[in-house]
Amino acid sequence: MTRRRDWCVLCLVVLLASCGAQRRELVIGSKNFSEQALLAEIVAQHLENKLHQPVTRRFYLAGSYICQQALLAGRIDAYVEYTGTALTAILHDPIQSDVSAVFERVKSEYQERFGLAVMPSLGFNNTFAIVVRGEDARRLNLKTIDDAARYTPQWRAGFGYEFMERPDGFRGLAKVYGLKFNAEPRILDLGLLYRALLSNQVDIVAGNSTDGLIAARDLVILEDDKHYFPPYEAVPIVRPDALNRFPGMDAALEELAGKISDTEMRKMNYAVDGEHRDTAEVAREFLQSKGLD
After folding, report:
1. pTM across the whole model
2. Beta-sheet pairing, 234-238 with 78-82
3. Average pLDDT for 30-50
């Protein structure tokens, strides 16, 4: 009996020790596209520099729902989300267009519902972008989504799965603008959207406004003239227990607030997607340029 009790005590000690070790691990996650990995790498490197703490990277975790669940379960300590996505896809709130109101709503609701901290915006707004080929935009004098609605009955559309399913995605857009196509939109992997557009497999896609390939490949973003899309400011979302475990983490994240402009994000995305440069190297150069290395 004594031997069995000693064995149980030993197991308990080992378990508690392993839990303690796990609590000392700082884990940054990301969704499954290159901008997300780049932002997560910027956050991870900055925290390593400021906290002198190794950071475990768990990138390309899939979409918002998976990252949110990983955060709530403690498998990651932080990731970068977009306020409009948080508002509609996670909180299931109605679409709003006011930047400050959306941020405050997301911040308060994440705290109240999930016990999560929403940090200040990194500085840029990565809204959905309805994109067409430059030659078509010039030939048809297309500047807005409303302009394109006259031609979409003859066009083929290509959208990502999440855009087709989320409340601020295709269905609402089609209703607001009266969009019709000559067939059901093709569901495409996000990495294939622009390839399909450039190879004339589709005529219109939904990308992101900070995608680096847009200007480089003579593609045109159509203006959301009816203001359908909410703001999508990039904000780190963090578990409060991580902020407690790593003193100075909140201050380090606040140092990144407002540091990334739309243009800078687009340039970094092109470096990764267009020039095929290493994500860690691009992140390091950005931090150095801001004096944050």
Report:
1. 0.82
2. antiparallel
3. 96
Structural contact between residues 85 and 64, judged by C-beta atoms closer than 8 angstroms: yes
Please give the pLDDT value at position 20: 40
Confidence band, pLDDT 50/70/90 cuts, at residue 190: confident
Beta strand pairing call for 26-29 and 234-238: unpaired
Here the tokens at position 36 are 């997300």
- Give Cα separations from 138 to 17, 41, 130 (angstroms): 65, 38, 15
Structural domain boundaries in the chain? 11-125+231-289, 128-222
Q: What Cα–Cα distance (Å) separates residue 134 from each residue in 59, 65, 129, 137, 186?
A: 33, 34, 14, 5, 21
Q: With respect to CATH, is domain 128-222 assigned 3.30.70.100?
A: no
Cα 43 versus chain centre, distance: 13
Fold designation for 11-125+231-289: D-Maltodextrin-Binding Protein; domain 2 (3.40.190)
CA gap 55, 26 in Å, rounded? 5
Transcribe the chain into DSSP letters.
-HHHHHHHHHHHHHHHHHHHHHHT-EEEE--SSHHHHHHHHHHHHHHHHHH---EEEE----SHHHHHHHHHHTS-SEEEEEHHHIIIIIS-PPP---HHHHHHHHHHHIIIII--EEPPP-S-B--EEEEEEHHHHHHHT--BHHHHTTTGGG--EEE-HHHHHSTTSHHHHHHHHT---SSPPEE--GGGHHHHHHTTS-SEEEEETT-THHHHTTEEEEB-TT--SPP-BEEEEE-HHHHHHSTTHHHHHHHTTT---HHHHHHHHHHHHTS---HHHHHHHHHHHTT--
From CA 2, how far away is CA 8, in angstroms rounded? 10
CA end-to-end span of the chain: 58
Rounded Cα gap, residues 135 and 198, in angstroms: 11
